[in-house]
Amino acid sequence: MSELPALDRAALGAAVRDRLAAVPGIFHMPAPIDIFLLRNFLSGEECAGLIALIDADRQPSTLFAPDRDPAFRTSESCNLKRSEPLVHAIEQRLSTLTGIDPAYGETVQGQRYAPGQQFKPHHDFFHTDQPYWPHQEKIGGQRTWTAMIFLNQPETGGQTDFPEAGIRVTPRTGNLLAWNNLDALGEPELRTLHQGLPVEAGMKYVITKWFRERPWG
């Protein structure tokens, strides 16, 4: 199955952008990419429940394409089960927030960063010249939007940095960060390059939900 035409991806991106921009209290960040911050999307109790699920199943994080740098992604992560009532409820809220059909969403991934751990600069969209692409194309195609929720606040460090967009976000418990991985023409947006800076003290927990251009899986 082929990718959606770029114009269709562009229309999807614009629809989600406009929907998010209308959410009370949301902040459309001043940047060359579409990126939004919504405070207190999750309660402290919900965040604590998700942290417990991550701690129960966490494993060393992996990459779609192997990297020669062993320090490229040093966190631990796990896929959170949709059968968990808390996970299911949050997925539904994310779909309601973005207006994206739940069928287009990948499984929510939980991530844990201990002091010194990081995720070096990367894109969430798929590079179509990579060996992983033919399989990803078959199971949903290109990634469109990313929704990341911070579950706690480490003592120091652990910011999410977009170096080419001039944005750096400090983790705050329950805050949601959402951005479009594609540009206004529906093509991969190189300026969405981002990184999880090293945690300096304390722990950092986040969950991430990626949406595809077609139903996932």
Automatic annotation (TrEMBL):
Cofactor(s) the record lists: L-ascorbate
Domain of life: Bacteria
Single annotated GO MF: oxidoreductase activity, acting on paired donors, with incorporation or reduction of molecular oxygen
Fe2OG dioxygenase domain sequence ranges: 104-213
Keywords assigned by UniProt, alphabetized: Dioxygenase, Iron, Metal-binding, Oxidoreductase, Vitamin C
InterPro entries: Oxoglu/Fe-dep_dioxygenase_dom, P4HA-like, Pro_4_hyd_alph, Pro_4_hyd_alph_FE2OG_OXY
UniProt keyword annotation of Cell wall biogenesis/degradation present: no
Name used for this protein in its record: Prolyl 4-hydroxylase
Source species of the chain: Allosphingosinicella indica
